[in-house]
């Protein structure tokens, strides 16, 4: 037990980096995903096609590859020619990747709404933005809670991928202690940290689902 106490400070510091990546990605990727979904289902075929291609690319290639490309390859692209530090590179890769997944979740939720509700809103004189804001999106948010929960929990676990950029996240902190002390206990503690984070998220989403279920009743 004393050993666990001694290794907690570096693991807590690493978990702070993990939480930063998670929270910043979530705050940026969710609204971006909603925007992409709205463009994806819009009548502007060219823009819709571009977004569809973007989503296909982001979902069809590994997140780790995207992260390594942003960090190592961007400096060699003539138009860009700038090397981002490790943290911005990780954030950019995560936001671009997860916005594509969130976009598909939002798209499926929006398209699940009965067309009659759009027509009813039009009869009431509502514009398309008003219809989306007042009628469609509140129902969509309720319907997409389960897939959003799954994707958010996956995001927590995927933050461990920033290890490849030599960032001092939770996994790298644990690995460093393992190599120093020749014991696997730090990995067990790190796993407990990840489990606690996913448990909190699971509980939060379950509360939201129960709240919306009451409104359905």
TrEMBL record:
Q: Which InterPro entries match?
A: AA_ABC_transptr_permease_3TM (IPR010065), ArtM/GltK/GlnP/TcyL/YhdX-like (IPR043429), MetI-like (IPR000515), MetI-like_sf (IPR035906)
Would you tell me the Gene Ontology cellular component terms? ATP-binding cassette (ABC) transporter complex
> Biological process GO annotation list?
amino acid transport
Q: Which residues cross the membrane?
A: 20-42, 63-81, 87-106, 187-205
Q: Where is the ABC transmembrane type-1 domain?
A: 15-205
Localization per record: Cell inner membrane; Cell membrane
Question: What topology does the record note for this protein and the membrane?
Answer: Multi-pass membrane protein
Write out the entry's keywords from A to Z.
Answer: Amino-acid transport, Cell membrane, Membrane, Transmembrane, Transmembrane helix, Transport
PANTHER family named among the record's database cross-references: L-CYSTINE TRANSPORT SYSTEM PERMEASE PROTEIN TCYL (PTHR30614:SF0), MEMBRANE COMPONENT OF AMINO ACID ABC TRANSPORTER (PTHR30614)
Q: How does it assemble?
A: The complex is composed of two ATP-binding proteins (GltL), two transmembrane proteins (GltJ and GltK) and a solute-binding protein (GltI).
Q: What is this protein called?
A: Glutamate/aspartate import permease protein GltK
